[in-house]
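Continuing from the previous page of notes. For each protein in this section, the sequence appears first, followed by its structure tokens. Read the first protein now.
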Amino acid sequence: MGAAAGNAGAAAAAESRGRGRRPGAMGGYELVRSDPALAPDDVDLEAGPCGGDDPKRRGGSASPAPARQRQRLVSLDVFRGITVLLMIIVDDAGAFIPAMNHSPWDGVTVADFVMPFFLFIVGVALALAYKRVPNKVDATTKAVLRALKLFCLGLVLQGGFFHGVRSLTFGVDLQEIRLMGILQRIAIAYLLTALCEIWLKGEEDVDYGLDLLRRYRYQLFVGAVVAITYMVLLYGTYVPDWEYQTSGPGSMEKSFFVKCGVRGDTSPGCNAVGMIDRKLLGIQHLYGRPVYARSKQCSINSPQNGPLPPDAPSWCQAPFDPEGLLSSVMAIVTCLIGLQYGHVIVHFQKHRERIMNWLVPSFSMLVLALAMDFFGLHMNKPLYTLSYTLATAGTAGLLFAGIYTLVDLYGYRRPTLAMEWMGMHALMIYVLIACNILPIFIHGFYWKEPKNNLLRFIGIGA
């Protein structure tokens, strides 16, 4: 994950009738768009009650749009584009602005909102993509294949095949390849959420907010089971003592012993999240530059990387994957929460109803998250704790409601055109920038000496 830790792309799929287009968004994302052959009983659920007749939204034309024309929900792309921009900013600015870097352990910084924002918007988009599912088996097959493609792409991009800008190595030792990562986590969350939307929908009519709870009660039950399972494993799993080896200068191998023998611990060295990853994935397949290396316990320059203090704990150099197995369980919950926000778009046509049904749960989740953090269940991105899940999902809901109000309600699209474009090409941007493809390409062309490349001429340096 490197500097791109916790930065993600969005993945969703429009399964039915071959509808939609691929805007190049994260993870092969497809979003329902205009259907040229809408049935007479189809209504515009994505454009609000005005049917898109706002002159601002129609480029200044005062003539109303056709009643049955379906319009793309622009706020989805804008939200995702803002998240992509935030991802780029925290990657570049995090090294010298602590508030823009990932929190070394407990606590939340700006960078820690990027991954949940992408997962949230995946869920929102899935509710639109699966509004109609004529063939559940076919939709399931396509969802599984897309998740596998995204997972494999993550293995290639984050398994070590693409090197860093100053690390011109090639190839991957399969004995040490990183198995989990950003795109792999999104693939898992996408698949489970898509299956819930395909198979676990009720038939009840939706007139009020509480009707959503009844119609999608089985999805909410799945989310509750997932969250409870995570909590039981995190606080109930016994973590024994363990040891690991690292290669020091001159390829000298050093062994470290970490004393634990505890249950329910959430410290960097003795938590159940890391233990499960070490047991199931193997420590050699985990991320080698853990975020807690910047903590006060492990760095004299904290919150930046630095030399180890003389009394540094033995776990400071141990690998830890921030996109591991158990922490990815809670990522599913974030995606499921986004799915419920998408249901509001599907079932409510009035802007006021949509916004109110977003604001109430968003504020509720934020209040609950702050209360949990106050009583000791701290927000923690590497562990993806429940309080962190609620805080980031609540913030995503508020931000999405604000963007929807600005862009889709009042039609102020011109100020957000750049964000809209970035959101529609999120996967391409992620691969080119966050995975170092573009910087490496630029470094590959120089004048006489490698240091005389394009980056040097524009003032960034070699």
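Done with the first. The second protein uses the same format. Note its length before scrolling.
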Amino acid sequence: MDHHHQPANQKHHLLYLPLVIKRELVYAIAFLIVVASSFFVFDLIGSFDPRSVFRFGFIKNDKDSSQSAACDYSRGRWVRDESYKNLSYTESCPFLDPGFRCVQNGRKDADYRNWRWQPEGCDLPSVYIEIFLNSLLQFLLRFNASEILNRGRNGRVVFAGDSVGRNQWESFLCMLAQGVANKSSIYEENGNPITKHKGFLSMRFSEYNLTVEYYRAPFLVFIGRPPRSSPAGIKMTIKVDQLHWFSRNWEGADVLMFNTGHWWNEDKTVKMGNYFEDGGKVNMSLNVMEAFQKSLQTWKSWGENLSHEGTRVFFRGYSPVHYRNGTWDEGGRCDVDIRPEANYMMLEPEPVYNQIISTVIKEMDYGDRKVRFLNVTHLSQFRYDGHPSRHREPGTPVDAPQDCSHWCLPGIPDTWNEILYANLLSMGFRTR
């Protein structure tokens, strides 16, 4: 692809400036002292809920809005921060698939780990206050494994979806394991290795009686044999009105993280002989996006009837695929990028998957229960450099297509989990 010239205002918006971490830390501490003092003052007059700060409802520059809007984590910029990787886990984490260990698989440039997501959307008029605020936001985004482990004690966290959802699950496991001194106390409940890719895996953090589970359900709904007397050429049917039978195991979880989308295309469905079934009948005229919408309505009906009132439900947005100069099976590649994309013009528009997912979530009536759309698509769009590309798992043929769908770990899914963490805090997840 040819790179377009970047408009001046967009170039300024995406200018990557190194941050002086120590100075910002001082600012953040000073701001936190001010905030803490305000907790005390407002608590005296009984008109302030300290948790409101964690909803990030700070002053926003929006003259047309009469109310302060919460910070939007999905918008911001990638900033260079070489200290970021030092606070993360390493590829030696025992819960990583071989295919996600990019440096061990021969990748020489590890600069993709030196970038940190800086959210925008919460602005105060003073430049100094803005620095304070940015530091505070980053402080709140920083994943605290001990915090989540303690809040999740005697609980369950469930990830359900496709292999990119597994990518995020493995990232979450490694981030969480940083809060556990004895790593051998973390084990798969059924004795399965991390390389098991069918069915499900359940990792138990025994010191906390916490399980973090992954269920492979690429469509979320059930796929199985077609009804009798179905037209010839139909191998399997995707039953858009039946949620995957794994859903019985999702019940009762404290945190549910869903994703889907990568299998909802013609290559993975009708071109493989997998057609759509609705009401016990094959519907040959149903296109992929119509079937996707119907399947999400099935998920919505299930979600609205969850019995556990403490469940926090998230649906992650579509993870972008980054093939340059061709599709995955036609020589497309992503091994030429070593830093985040800096040109807005190179980014794809919001995928239709996200529009459908967010619409369904807005329709949901959860009462006291919470459900949120975790839109990580925009921030991930910039990261052509974060994929395994040609540095795939050992034994992969030399001429195999590059992997520009999944992500190197540590890597971009860590940021998704930092945003998940911040959302859990803002929702008062399992506060005592």
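What the second structure shows: The chain has ten helices and 13 strands. Confidence is low (pLDDT under 50) at residues 1-24, 37-69, 122-128. We return to this in next week's lecture.
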